[in-house]
Amino acid sequence: MPLSSLEQTALAALDEQGLLAAFRHVLRIPSVTGYEAAAQHWLGQHMRDLGLAVDLWTIDVPAMKKHPQFPGMEVERSQHEAVGLVGTWQREATSAPFGKRLIFNGHIDVVPVGDRANWQHDPWGAEREDDRIYGRGACDMKSGLMAALYAVKAIKDSGIPLNGSLMVQSVIGEEDGGIGTFASILRGHTGDAAIVCEPTNMNLIPAQAGALTFTVRVPGKSAHACVRLEGVSAIEKYLDIHRVLIQLEKERNSEVEHPLLRKLRLPYPLNIGRVQAGNWSSSVPEELLFEGRIGVAIGEASDDVRHQFEQTLANLAEDDPWLRNHPLEIQWSGGQFDSAEIAMDHPLVTLCQQCMLDLTSRAPAIEGAPYGSDLRLLVNLGGMPTLLFGPGDVNVAHMPDENVRVDEILLAARAYILAAIRFLV
Fold first, then answer.
1. Pick from 380, 400, 404: nearest CA to 390
2. Residue 320 confidence (pLDDT) above 90
């Protein structure tokens, strides 16, 4: 459909150079999960400078952890400030909220850099090369967060009337459970709909799988290596466990019914991400710890997945004389991501699809995500229809030389401007 004069006015007000400069600035602030405070304080002041009403507060982590719906947390935060941040703009900043409320949600935390030798670009340098900007968090997901903020700024600067309010939630701890979005919802920052600015290549994701983090202790019996048969190697026991878990993953992905997830090669992965065993090279290892995550199918209860995982290991132990008498210890540690979805033809999906069609003459794909995100908190806890929709390619997230295309950042900001106007006007 042709753009209205109001929409054209708002699009023309987008401060492209300001957006890119602010994005590169926040990209240079290391904000690894658990260490987000400096980035949050800078962004809070930047929101104030742009004219938004800002709520910046210290999250009471112990109180959050006592909540029956606490989403889990992997990083210890007792020594570091946990900062919540929400910026809001409405036509009359001093009035009570009116009309509909649209939320843009983005996480400021990023995963660790890893071995810097694997990076060709400084992970905290925000280096620009041709049409790409490089750095940890470039696509996952500081670009989407800043595109949303500058979309709100453009609407504000254009002076067009809106019957409602726009909110930008900059949240912490998404990578290890979602405490930032959880705390924002409990603080009352809710709306009529939300767009999570995750990297989706500007396609639309209304459905996400879940993911549950686990830690398992495998017991063994130590002995000198020269008489290793007198001991029981925890590593050898783990090899049997690993084979069983590979089979479990295969079974759980054999008959995927969801129309968006069944298109993927592996909709619900079971991944072992960390294994630690032994304390001496010439001793039989008496203990092994392994950590990983198991996918939760859309519509599947997380408790059912936990039970299936535990029962699979219990069946293995029953057939193993050592493990039968020396039980495995299973803990559900770290982030616990339920699945969530809205209908593929939900009005929010249709609205964003039309915005992209009008901007690019191409309708974006509607896809499902095999990973957990804060979408499930906004939908399941907050009761808000929510969509993943943002710049960047998830295939380069969490990798060395993570990057995002400049033109996609700007396209995201324009799409958010249109979506906000059409949702609120």
1. 404
2. yes
